[in-house]
Amino acid sequence: MKKLRVGAVAAAAGIAVVLTGCSGGSDGSNAGSGGSGDKPTIVVDMWSGSESDTKALQEQVKFAQEANPDINIKLQTAPWGDYFTKLTTNMASGNMACVSGMSGAQLGGYTAGFRELSDEDLKTAGLDLADFNVGADGILGFEGKLYGLPFDVATMLVYYNQDMLTATGAPTPEIGWSFDDFDKTAAAATKDGKFGFGMGMGGYQWVSLPISMSGTQPANADGKLEIDNADFVKAAEWYAGLVTDKKVAAPVASASDTGWGEDQYSSGNAAMAVDGTWNAVSYLTNESGFAAGMAPLPAGAKGSVGPILGSGYGIAKTCDNPEAALKVMGSLLGKDAQDYIASSGRSFPARTESQPLYFDSIDEKYRDQVKSVFEAAFASTTPLYMTKNWDKLDNYIQPNLVSVYSGQMTMADLLKNAQSQFGN
Question: What is the pTM of this model?
Answer without folding.
Answer: 0.89
